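Usage

Read records sequentially. Each one opens with the input sequence:
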Amino acid sequence: MVSKTIDGGSNPSARAKNKIMKLFNFFSEAFTELKENMTWPTWAETQKQTIIVALFSIIMALVTWGVDETFTRAVAGFFSLIK
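and closes with the structure output:
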């Protein structure tokens, strides 16, 4: 005797349909949540924040490059002293 479970029993087709329905339900609810319960920024806000992120990224890249150059020269100087 095969025991039945909540997720569709021993029938693989029923279990697959149940999983597909759960996945469809998840995406449907997620779409509804994004559409009805989210406050989206205006186009002007999006442009402003994009510029801020781009500038911050450029500044951080320059800082990282500067620290890298400093340590590269410091290590090269150290090894030239002990050579």
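Summary fields computed downstream for this record:
- The mean pLDDT is 89.
- Residues 31 and 37 are 10 Å apart (CA to CA).
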